[in-house]
């Protein structure tokens, strides 16, 4: 991650602003408040405001966006490997020694945390950066910078909720494994969870990808699971790093997909051990759990699943966005 050059103090105005938003305490994590239609923890909102004020995009920037627990870690590993394939062979990849979240840092969770104004100009280009922020929260310099690219990864909400719940439990961020999931489930359905509501998040990027497909690539976790090699080529083409015929014949697409596979990354020491300090302290291992489509069947009751599926379909309306809910 880049070194920071300045720190912006959390001022009284921010505390006042947060209190005026009348924060609620959801079961999952700390206090969240609704700011311009989106739910934030105080620290993440402060970091978001600093990021919006100070970040200057450049044409070569690559922004990876997602709702938490949509497969961000996977997208980071794949994009990093595709873009840097001339700098590191697969056998020598930094991914073998470093959790993907250090190689592709989150803007509002790590880089602009606690009022930091990072020296991102010193980062090597192309800068690959990540965010969980909704599309409308991205600074105008990203939206207006014509060649900077955004890749959004979406996952079905039943698995996102399931993955989020297990992640919070694994990291001790919710109290007891035997606790009823009714309350967090209800909050998720109401959109009260960090960066929620879920549907507004997906639809913001979905609409942007339809309006400007050169700038925003919309991917689905379930599609990556079905055919990761095609997704690797799609990402490479979109970013302007297409695989040559020689690279394809040499099997480089498959090698990158293997390097970034769940089974490979999960078993590396750098992902089995250690913690990362973002909004919370979280175990590296907690980013690699099951990686299945349809694992929600082990957590949600059939009526919860029906309700969330219906709600999601209702919210998506005529948008044309569909997501696969069960593994086929
Ligand atoms: P984040 O938003 O906190 O960064 P994120 O990486 O988006 O988390 O989501 C983690 C999910 O992606 C986990 O899903 P699960 O809980 O249903 O198992 C995790 O297992 C899955 N995941 C992580 N790495 C990979 C990978 N290489 N391939 C497929 N899925 C992965």
CATH class: Alpha Beta
CATH topology, which one? Rossmann fold
Shape: globular
What is the mean predicted local confidence, pLDDT? 92
Enzyme class: transferase
Family: Belongs to the sulfotransferase 1 family.
Organism: Coffea arabica (Arabian coffee)
EC number: 2.8.2.-
Structure description:
Belongs to the sulfotransferase 1 family. Keywords: Transferase. It comes from Coffea arabica (Arabian coffee). With 328 residues, this protein is of the alpha/beta class. It has a single domain, classed as Rossmann fold (3-Layer(aba) Sandwich). The chain has helices at 12-20, 42-54, 72-83, 100-103, 107-111, 140-144, 157-170, 182-189, 198-211, 221-226, 228-239, 245-249, 252-259, 262-266, 269-272, 302-316; strands at residues 4-7, 32-35, 38-41, 62-66, 116-118, 128-131, 149-154, 216-220, 275-277, 281-283. The strands form four sheets. A four-stranded parallel sheet has the order 6-4-7-8, with helices on both faces. The longest helix is centred in the last third of the chain and has 15 residues, at 302-316. It is globular and about 55 Å long. The chain starts with a strand and ends in a 12-residue tail after the last helix. The mean pLDDT is 92. 3'-phosphate-adenosine-5'-diphosphate binds at residues 66, 68-74, 159, 163, 166, 260-262, 265, 287-291, 295.
């Amino acid at each position: 991650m880049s070194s920071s050059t300045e720190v912006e103090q959390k001022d009284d105005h921010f505390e006042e602003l947060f209190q005026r938003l009348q924060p609620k305490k959801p079961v999952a994590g700390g206090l969240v408040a609704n700011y311009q239609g989106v739910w934030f923890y105080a620290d993440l909102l402060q970091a978001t405001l600093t990021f919006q004020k100070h970040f200057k995009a450049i044409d070569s920037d690559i922004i990876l966006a997602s709702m938490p627990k949509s497969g961000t870690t996977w997208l980071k590993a794949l994009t990093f490997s595709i873009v840097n394939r001339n700098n590191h062979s697969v056998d020598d990849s930094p991914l073998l020694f470093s959790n993907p979240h250090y190689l592709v840092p989150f803007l509002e969770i790590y880089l602009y945390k606690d009022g930091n104004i990072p020296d991102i100009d010193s980062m090597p280009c192309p800068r690959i950066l990540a965010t969980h922020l909704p599309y409308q929260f991205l600074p105008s310099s990203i939206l207006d910078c014509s060649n900077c690219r955004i890749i959004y990864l979406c996952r079905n909400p039943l698995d996102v909720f399931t993955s989020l719940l297990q992640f919070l439990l694994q990291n001790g961020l919710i109290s007891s494994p035997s606790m009823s999931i009714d309350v967090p489930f209800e909050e998720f359905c109401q959109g009260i969870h960090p960066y929620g509501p879920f549907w507004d998040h997906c639809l913001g990027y979905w609409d942007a990808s339809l309006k400007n497909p050169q700038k925003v690539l919309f991917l689905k976790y379930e599609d990556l699971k079905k055919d990761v090699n095609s997704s690797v080529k799609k990402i490479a083409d979109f970013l302007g790093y297409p695989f040559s015929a020689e690279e394809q014949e040499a099997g480089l697409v498959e090698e990158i997909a293997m390097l970034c596979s769940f089974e490979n990354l999960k078993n590396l020491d750098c992902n089995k051990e250690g913690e990362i300090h973002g909004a919370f302290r979280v175990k590296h291992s907690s980013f690699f759990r099951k990686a299945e489509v349809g694992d929600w069947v082990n957590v949600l009751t059939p009526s919860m699943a029906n309700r969330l599926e219906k709600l999601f379909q209702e919210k998506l309306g005529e948008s044309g966005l569909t997501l696969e809910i069960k593994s086929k």
